[in-house]
Amino acid sequence: MTTSSRKILVTSALLYANGPIHLGHMLEVIQTDTWVRFQRLAGHDARYVCADDAHGTPIMLKARSDGIEPVQLIEEMLREHQRDFAGFQIQFDFYHTTHSEENRYFTETIYSRLNAAGYITKRVIRQAYDPDADMFLPDRFIRGECPRCSSPDQYGDSCESCGATYSPGDLKNPVSAISGATPVERESEHHFFRLPDFEPMLKTWIGSGRLQREVVNKLAEWFDSGLRDWDISRDEPYFGFEIPGYPGKYFYVWLDAPIGYLASFKALCDTEKLDFDAYWKPGSETELYHFVGKDILYFHALFWPAVLHGANFRTPTSVFVHGFLTVNGQKMSKSRGTFIRADTYLRHLDPDYLRYYFAAKLNNRVEDLDLNPEDFVQRVNSDLVGKVVNIAARCAGFINKRFRNEIGDRLDDPDRFKRAVDAGTSIALAYDNREFSRAIREIMAVADEANQYVNDRQPWIVAKQAGSDAELQAICCQGLNLFRLLITWLSPVTPSLAQRSSSFLCCDISGPGQWSNLSQPLLNHRISEYQHLLTRINPKDVKQMIADSIEPESPVTKPHLSDEPIRPEITIDDFSKIDLRVAKVVDAQSVEGADKLIELQLDLDGESRTVFAGIKSAYDPQTLIGRQVVVVANLAPRKMRFGTSEGMILAASGSDDASGIFVIQPDGGAEPGMGVR
Prior knowledge:
The chain has 21 helices and 26 strands. By secondary structure, the chain is of the alpha/beta class. Strands 1, 2, 3, 4, 14 and 15 form a 6-stranded parallel beta sheet that branches. The protein has a 5-stranded antiparallel beta sheet with strand order 20-19-18-21-24. The longest helix is centred in the middle third of the chain and has 30 residues, at 373-402. It starts with 6 loop residues before the first strand and ends in a 14-residue tail after the last strand.
């Protein structure tokens, strides 16, 4: 662990201000907060700022739907978000909103600098226009069939089924997500950031070893396909900052959103008299880190560093990218009660439970994290209560009752204590590298040894032996000092438990620089009366939380046949051209970079096939292994960004997949290779 103090500025992705916080949001914020708390515990000057992302068309439309002004909506959301973050003990140094004067200043400043340097170009484009809503449509507000794979209900800029990117005009049968009208094309002058001008700079920045391997590989794909000018303007009506000198033109939300990092930190600097330029000037020796999800990698690893460099600000030291949160191997679902809001969780469970569970499963790779309710209960109860808190509970009573709360002047086994202290070096390294799961494993290994020590020394037996007071006190002193180590190491993860433990031990657990004080045991020290530090999770509370999270699906206004009419009649000769076969799934894996795709390895009676299926929203890949499916065996291979798909498996769904996806499975007795007739 570095002994010299570092100056670190940390951000997490801005939360969009049109809805409540859910546990998927909390995954990133808890990860960031844990890392920042560790840095402070290690003695570093770590600052954590964030903000609500408060601009854009969705907020404008949400406010309109609610019958209020956008400003009122974002103010209500800001209060709600701050409340929920506080409930999870998120320790922001400053939490702001992008609808602020600081953000307006930096957005206009950055635009002006980029424009003066020749990095902004203006040109007339044709774009989709909703004639009923009387507005230009963002790409994400246009839905239609993918021009490459024909998957229905895809966004106007990319397909979640095959991963293709395209322009809205390429969509088949496009409709406006606002009114349902068919978009028309109209001309408008837009402002573009010349991202390709920064390709050499970006390749140098990316190649410096500062990014995760998976991230570098993904960025290489974008370089191979060619960087494009980035549209940074939008037409009225729009909620945001108007571009100076261009009435009716607004800065695109994805320009002013990351600028919110600068704005939030500037607000902190004004509050605490910090030197803003020391952190943001080119060549600054301070460290700057962004924690973001894999879905916004493009903006943070290409667009954002280029904008900063072009506007004469420093670039990030690194961008830390994580995967998504799933529940029981599936995407969060309101109908199943697994789309859990932060406030719903807090009504039922201690926030430290979730913080610990996330930490126990988080690493520094771009991997999805699964929340399994049964595993959640078992892990928390076993580790936090059964191992860590148990040590304090087993030792404190003797100190309270027999020794007037005096912990004693010696350890029973100083060498054992030193070995435990030495384990902290590896734990600190794991924290610093964001390998939280490794840190937790190593902490629990020390907890196991501490519990074994108490079991071996049996203070409850020693207490009954005449003349053994000194021995008993030393044993309990040893146990409580081991507990202090454990709870200090865990304090970035479980701040509430650390706070209660600090009151019990009457010493600072999680203050700045406390990690370096752990080599000195607490001796001749008075503690408080022991009170329960943490209770076990009651599985009934988890079930109730899930029950309270269930939202009834929107009523179906049309039957399936009305929503998706039967296609034109075919003959038996047409049908006979399709060769349907039974196949066995021998392997199934998620496809990195594709939200909907699972890569299936199929066995057709000795013939192996690779098929990409858009069923990830409904199935955990591992649950498919060993199942039999029906596959279109004579479908021409289709080259996709992720590989070549050699067929198509059959599944049932509604027109928009909202009612679920159901893979067709043959009855028992069917064998791989059999024809389906």
